[in-house]
């Protein structure tokens, strides 16, 4: 019985005692470069509308009027407490006012294209809006504000979100003289921990690179236990580039839990044996304790090999994707050439058919003329015989 308990204890150590939680949630994140195997794409994310994936950033809208674009995470965020750090650039080649703005979403379901900063109205969850244009004339734009929606609210464009705004701050996140190629990004950090949502920003990014944070707002809110992240933007009569550089989602580690990277080893507490532990149980325990590190090391190596194999498979698939695209392009070119050749042959056949028809007509005319000539000759012969 004691031996059974000790084996269960070892199993519990292997399953729960080793804390190997990655800080970064890869499936809910993206960062450059985005050019993979010759194809620009964002793993785990879906693009909609006018969104264009560049090599080093994602352009939700160009500096053109009447454009909507969005990018939605295809994977559900299952973290209870999380933090998002996003780098973005909003601006235009001049220092004139811009519009309409951008939104960061956290909703129960994936959004679709729509009228609210490029995404659908009546969402369920949180919308964090980067509103560039002052529709209501209160002088508080550009601003960042948050609206919670249970699906029943319709966004009031003319009032810049009022009266549904839960929290707000105003700072100039727009970039002047931006040509849609490169500019130092603004960073925003959205943190949700123990039911409290906190938003902060870093505008001085040339040197700080997202480390000098200024508070925007913090308040208790109830967000979906699990949800989808999304980004969207829109332009109207007034325009801006809306570009996102990176979006990184992190698991918030409790204060009493030491943060560590994936597969990092951690010392494990050893169980304490009672003084009256039977000798056979003590022997079993000593055997388990002596072999535990070896077992853990083997499990650890298996996990690392699995990650390495997964990475290799992904690279191989990317290479195959590139080759398939090349083959597809070659096949497409060959098909175009074959279609042209068939067209030429068909045209020649039609020309030949026309020539044959003309030739037949000529033969028929000659035959008719000969028939007429034979008739006349017969007539002449009859007349000669009659004389």
Helix fraction by DSSP (H/I, runs of at least 4): 25-40%
List low-confidence stretches: 1-22, 259-274
Helix/strand structural class? alpha+beta
Mean pLDDT: 78
Strand content: 25-35%
Q: In this structure, how is the largest beta sheet organized?
A: 8 strands, mixed
Please provide the ordered H/E string of secondary-structure elements.
HEEEEEEEEEEEEEEEHEEEH
Work out the radius of gyration: 37 Å
SS field, number of helical segments: 3
Distance between the termini: 146 Å
How many individual β-strands?
18
In short:
With 387 residues, the protein is of the alpha+beta class.
Account of the 3D structure:
By secondary structure, the protein is an alpha+beta fold. The protein is 33% helix and 27% strand. The protein has helices spanning 2-17, 205-208, 279-386; strands spanning 35-36, 39-40, 45-49, 52-53, 58-61, 68-73, 82-91, 101-107, 113-116, 124-131, 143-150, 165-170, 174-175, 186-193, 196-202, 214-220, 228-234, 241-251. The strands form 3 sheets. Strands 4, 5, 7, 13, 14, 15, 16 and 18 form an 8-stranded mixed sheet that branches. Strand 14 and strand 15 (196-202) form a beta hairpin. Helix 1 crosses helix 3 (279-386). The protein is elongated and about 130 Å long. 26% of the residues are buried. Mean pLDDT is 78; it is low at 1-22 and 259-274.
